[in-house]
Amino acid sequence: MAFDRPEGRAGGRPQRRGRKKVCSFCVDRIEHIDYKDVARLRKYVSERAKIIPRRVTGTCAFHQRELTVAIKRARHVALMPYVSD
Q: Running DSSP on this structure, what letter comes out for residue 44?
């Protein structure tokens, strides 16, 4: 049949699952993400100053929402840049 495809992705290679990422905030038992902790926030921002998504960083939904708010606050008070140079 025309729609018979091999298992996995379109290229015929089987899918490979990586290790499950864990939320670093949950591991460290951090309840509130502080917008003034710029060193920690920079780990979750790309070199183009874009917030890195959950699927890449492995943060849980709760902490990703808090992280987004903290990064936006830090940008607003000029602790972090809106765009890269």
A: G
Q: What are the φ and ψ backbone dihedral angles of 10, each rounded to 5 degrees? A: -65, -30
> Contact 41/67 with Cβ under 8 angstroms?
yes
Confirm whether pTM is higher than 0.85.
Answer: no
* Beta-bridge mates of residue 51: 45
pLDDT at 68: 97
CA distances from 35 to 3, 24, 43, 76 (A): 51, 16, 13, 10
Each residue's pLDDT tens digit, 18-37: 788 899 999 999 999 999 99
Q: What is the pLDDT of residue 5?
A: 60
* DSSP state for residue 12 in the 8-state scheme: S
- Residue ranges of domains in the chain, CATH in brackets: 32-76 (4.10.640.10)
